[in-house]
Each structure stands twice: as C-alpha cells, then as structure tokens.
Amino acid sequence: MLKHLKIFQTKRVDNVLLVTPQGDPNTFRYNDLHREANSVRDLLMRSEISHLALNLKNLQYFGSEFIGSLVSMAREVKNRQGRAVICEANPQMVEVLQNMSLFKLWPYFATEQEALASLPGTAPDEPAE
Q: Per residue, what are the HEC states of the chain?
C-alpha cells in the first residue's frame, strides 16, 4: 500500500491492514520509526480498514520504541472497535511477547492465514499474497 516505507511493509487484505516490519530494529532511527508509524496509523484511520494484523516473521528483536509504535497502531484500530492480531514471530519473540503480557491485548497466531481468518470481514481460506 505505502511503497515509500522502509521499516513497515503494508498490504490491505479485505478490511485488514497487514503490517510486516522489515529489517533490524536496532538500525532504525527514532525519527524514521516515528514517521513511518504515523503513516501506518494514517492508513488505519481509513474507513475501509477495520483491523490490524502484525506479521513479525522478519524480526529477531525489537526495543521499547518499536513496541510503542506497534501498541499505538493497535490502539488506533481498537479505538474504532477493530481488532489487532500478531502472527509468525520466532520462538524467542513469542517468549518476549508472552512475558510482556501482550498476548492478553492481541491474540497470537502461528500463521498469517490463521491470523487473517480470525478477523471479522476477511474471506476464510484465501491466502494473503
């Protein structure tokens, strides 16, 4: 959806914004992270977007600023009665997310397809491209 982003790859799947962070968060400059997170939140405010799916398959680690950006994205959809889900984190990241109790806020799914299928308004059994 937004081609100019380097940190967050975005794609619309039905009424869901699928966000896949790219690269090593240790190399992100705070200003770039903040600017791109704002761009993603702008997308989340569109009327055709109801939910957020965060695919963490490309991350090995993330710090507090990065977590803050994900929380702000999830809060944006929650404020509009939408849901946020997380998927495809590596085992170490799953443990970190569990220790932070983030799965109480956002359900976790092993695959992107399971995450998308769990959200209202998405077509079941249609793999994301």
A: CCCCCCCEEEEEECCEEEEEECCCHHHCCHHHHHHHHHHHHHHHCCCCCCEEEEECCCCCCCCHHHHHHHHHHHHHHHHCCCCEEEECCCHHHHHHHHHCCHHHCCCEECCHHHHHHCCCCCCCCCCCC
Least confident of 26-30, 38-42, 46-50, 125-129: 125-129
Residue range 64-72: average pLDDT?
A: 86
**Those residues with Cβ within 8 angstroms of residue 59's Cβ, 6 or more apart along the chain or in another chain:** 21, 25, 89, 90, 93
| pTM confidence score | 0.86
CATH code at 8-117: 3.30.750.24
